[in-house]
Amino acid sequence: MTGKQRSNKIQVPQGMFDILPEDQPFYQKVYEVGKKIASFYGFKEITPPILESTELFEKGTGEATEIVEKQMYSLKTKGGDSLTLRPEFTPSLARAYLEQGMISLPQPVKMFSFGPVFRHEKPQAGRYRQFYQLNLEAFGSRHPIVDVEIIYIFYNILQSLGIKKLIIELNSIGDKECIGDYKKLLVRYLKKNESRLCPDCKRRLKTNPLRIMDCKQERCKQIAAGAPQIIDHLCKECHNHFKKVLEFLDELGLPYNLNPCLVRGLDYYTRTVFEIIAEDELGRQIGSLVGGGRYDNLVKLFSRKNIPACGGAAGVERIISIMKERRLVTAEVQPPRVFLAQLGDAAKIKSLKLMEDFRKAGILVAASLDKDSLSAQLKNADKLKASHSLIIGEEEASRDMVIIRDMVNGRQTTVRTDKVAGELKKKLKQQ
Ligand code: HAM
Fold it and tell me: Of 183, 229, 233, which Cα lies nearest the Cα of 209?
């Protein structure tokens, strides 16, 4: 999609794409595996609207983030409201938690979502402007076990989808107590190196100095490598929290890597931040599939209620791209073993009614109802390698009968229309 010459023809918007029929099983598989595992751990599904008030993301995702600065699709409604296509789920779920009174439910309230998000990014491999996220959030617990539970669930979802070689990148960015002092220290260090920073990071030095730690430019990476590390400046509570997270991960035997440069690109994080990265056979990192962390101060921005929270989101297209590349088979779609052929309008309408009987009986049947030639239809049955064909000619239609033809030995039986689903079930069982 990237770099493609765009003509004057109406085309799909840049950075977006059609999810074609052959791709649907992949999305369904990720959704089903995600939902099954998340619901086992008590995460209930919630679907917030795709459009939310712009203010929700400005406040929640954070004014100094790249998402809010450059990437939101915002619009003014005819009524004058300012709305934005969600660039992520987290602020929506914090809003829903407050608005739906979930504060009075037993805590933590754990929620699972799946759906498209929109970011006006520069399109490139693995980076789209509309992409799906599988998102988990848990509101109402400060306990480090919740951080680990979220990481563990994502890890298990990826494993169950067949993506086995994974590494968890981990850091703690402290809380209000310690981050302020650390930022001063960091800015002092970065100012000394300001002339060598990339233009974006020179700007970040004023708006969001922490982000300089994970700039992808080589020269900034070198500066970040020599910077003071937040982990050495955590307050006692944050230090103990992180220590527990590491202990739990050790107990579970999950592979992690402490990464002092991992700060994540969203303003709301406190304490634990993580990403789950896929590796190839040679141990080279091939993409960040999941990102998340704790955000104990986000809900407070909307309500003054002190509700700690933790969550994460997986990028569904990145997961699917690995599933496809490694030929990790998705839910195999069973081809129908029965073909229904018909002749004449009366037979066509009888066939349509019969299809409903088969659907209810759980028998997969293919048909080409728009075709008139019987031989063309039987050719389709051959292509499908159907074990049985059902034939309704004009005469059968008028007598309310159906011919069942065994495609292997050519034997035919004629049965009443209302008996055909039962009869067919028996024959398919005998095979
Ligand atoms: P994020 O790191 O911005 O976090 O996105 C999560 C995942 O979405 C990434 O790890 C990546 O797999 C995928 N992703 C991000 N941008 C793109 C893109 N342009 N194209 C394709 N995939 C992409 C969040 O969104 C946070 N809301 C996660 C979170 C939930 N933190 C706490 N709770």
Answer: 183
